[in-house]
């Protein structure tokens, strides 16, 4: 084969090789782009599926909570209805015209109220025995609530005077009241005919539970 023809044949082969390399490069680039697009699309679909699942879980949880609240509301109504005709509650009402459920509210108020406690001590408890009320002290600063719906202590102090029998009856009235009263200290002075007593004690109130409806953003 002549030298010129060999050169042309070699050049043609190199051109074919270069063309094949370019073609291969293009296909590799196209394949890489296709794979990248697939990966991005797959990642997007997976994230979307996960988000949809979180939304479904949140809806199921909200539905379960709603069902529980409906059932609890029915039970609560039944319990309140049973209190309306409860004879034990009716027998300890302060006023005959008051509804029975007021006894429950009086027993454990839903909020701190120093004035209401002082008024209750003077008019509903201490006055029954006939003692002379010299002072009623209810601190206006409430005990720190825990954030939970549990009874919170509320302190008080009373100083009264009277005969021994009247003082004794006054202490019994404190024990019999529907609102829980705990005597923490007692100081007596005088004799059976004329006695003066200072009593320190605590009672309780229970913060009311609240039903809050809120929106939650699922992320």
Write the layout of secondary structure elements.
Layout: H1 3-84, H2 87-90, H3 100-107, H4 114-129, E1 132-137, E2 152-162, H5 164-176, E3 182-190, E4 195-205
Antiparallel strand pairs: 1-2, 2-4, 3-4
Helix pairs in contact: 4-5
Verbal overview:
It is a single chain. This protein is α+β, with helices and mostly antiparallel strands and 219 residues long. It folds into two domains: 1-84; 105-205, 2-Layer Sandwich (Alpha-Beta Plaits), CATH 3.30.70.60. 56% of the residues lie in helices and 17% in strands. It contains five helices and four strands. Strands 1-2-4-3 form a four-stranded antiparallel beta sheet. A hairpin with a 4-residue loop joins β3 and β4 (195-205). α4 (114-129) packs across α5. The protein is rod-shaped. The model has no long low-confidence stretch (mean pLDDT 79).
| Shape call | rod-shaped
* Measured distance between first and last alpha carbons: 76 Å
Using the coordinates shown, work out and report the CATH topology of the largest domain: Alpha-Beta Plaits
Q: Could you estimate the helical fraction of the residues in percent?
A: 55-70%
The low-confidence runs, each spanning 5 or more residues with pLDDT under 50, are: none
Give the H and E element order.
HHHHEEHEE
Largest sheet: 4 strands, antiparallel
Provide a count of the helices. Answer: 5
> CATH H level of the largest domain: which superfamily?
Ribosomal protein S6/Translation elongation factor EF1B
Whole-angstrom Rg: 42 Å
């Amino acid at each position: 084969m002549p030298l010129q023809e060999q050169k042309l044949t070699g050049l043609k082969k190199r051109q074919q090789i270069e063309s094949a390399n370019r073609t291969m490069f293009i296909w590799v680039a196209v394949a890489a782009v296709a794979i990248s697009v697939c990966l991005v699309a797959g990642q997007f679909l997976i994230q979307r599926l996960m988000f949809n699942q979180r939304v479904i879980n949140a809806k199921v949880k909200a539905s379960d909570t709603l069902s529980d609240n409906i059932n609890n509301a029915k039970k609560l109504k039944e319990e309140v209805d049973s209190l309306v005709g409860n004879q034990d509650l009716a027998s300890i009402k302060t006023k005959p015209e008051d509804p029975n459920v007021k006894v429950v509210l009086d027993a454990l108020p839903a909020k701190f109220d120093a004035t209401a406690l002082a008024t209750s001590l003077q008019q509903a408890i201490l006055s029954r025995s006939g003692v002379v009320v010299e002072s009623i002290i209810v601190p206006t600063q409430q005990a720190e609530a825990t954030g939970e719906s549990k009874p919170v202590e509320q302190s008080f102090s009373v100083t009264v005077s009277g005969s021994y029998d009247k003082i004794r009856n006054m202490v019994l009235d404190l024990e019999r009241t529907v609102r829980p009263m705990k005597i923490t200290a007692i100081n007596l002075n005088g004799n059976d005919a004329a006695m003066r007593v200072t009593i320190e004690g605590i009672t309780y109130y229970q913060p009311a539970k609240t039903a809050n409806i809120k929106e939650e953003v699922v992320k």
